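Hello forum,

I keep getting stuck at the same step: I have a sequence, I want structure tokens, and every attempt I make locally crashes halfway through. Rather than fight my setup again tonight, could one of you with a working pipeline run this one for me? It's a single chain of 323 residues.
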Amino acid sequence: MIRESPLFWPVHFKSGTIFILDETRLPGKLVYIKVRNIKEAVSAIRDMKTRAFGQFLVVLYSFLMVLEHNKKIPAKSLLVKLQNTATDLNGSRPTFPFKEVTSIVMGWAQDFFQAKNDLPENLSRNIMGFLMNIRGKRLNRCRQIAALIKDKDSILTHCNVSGELAMAAQICRQQHKRIGFFATETRPYLQGARLTTWELRKAGFPVTLVTDNAVGRLLREKMVNKVVVGSDRSCANGDIANKIGTYQIALLAKEFKVPFYVLNQPSKKVACGKKMPIEIRDAREILFFNKKRIAPTGTLGFYPAFDVTPSNLITKTISIDVQ
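Reply #2:
Ran it on my machine without issues. Output:
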């Protein structure tokens, strides 16, 4: 029996409230944050309460929340509220392609408004259908990941791929494949240490935690034979942006002839990696740990949240098209 990781679908919507799994509290506590307005939704995104796919879900559920809270207002006023919602969400993080999703929703909204159809009912139905379609595609991608994995494989991953690797691993177990994992700590938020190891152990798989700078030794000594990572944004030429440190792993994988697989969402909005906007996070996120300063006063900090991995370093992408 395959058990779904809480990270596979970390955000839910019920009775006008968004419930977000607070990934900053894992593995200590499984806690859901209640979000009741767009300001709180944007804060949850910016404060990294959920990441990557979870933020994608927050964007879509935010529209459902606005629709639920404004059923009685005139359609024209509702359209303005929806556009303001899209603007706020689009500006929450520069690297994430939220506009590609919000533009789909606003396109539907404009069509329903122009046709004088019931805007709240029809738009809600479209968004829910869209979400269920994505869910099906993600489950199918788990099967594709499992198909790439062979018996006795040792797989390295960086950051966290929102539940998909744990699901794919369970499919492998059903196929009688014996596999193990190495996870990088993934500084500075330690998503690998806190999230990836937690969900893989919860699913019953052997996983070894390593420092981010141990990857070269792992690959040189043939301790891993596959790398699987996610991506937060893709370019038209196949370049991808993912958690800072991914590029270094890709270079090492190429050097030691280890396949480097990427879970991505194709997009042609950005031509190539050189044109990708990269979010620079607050320096305090690396100068402090658990609210305690770890570097001398006056030390500067530079924390790009992502780096770009060029397509020539990628063995294969396993894609979900959200359009």
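The chain has a mean pLDDT of 96. If your local run keeps crashing, start a new thread with the error log.
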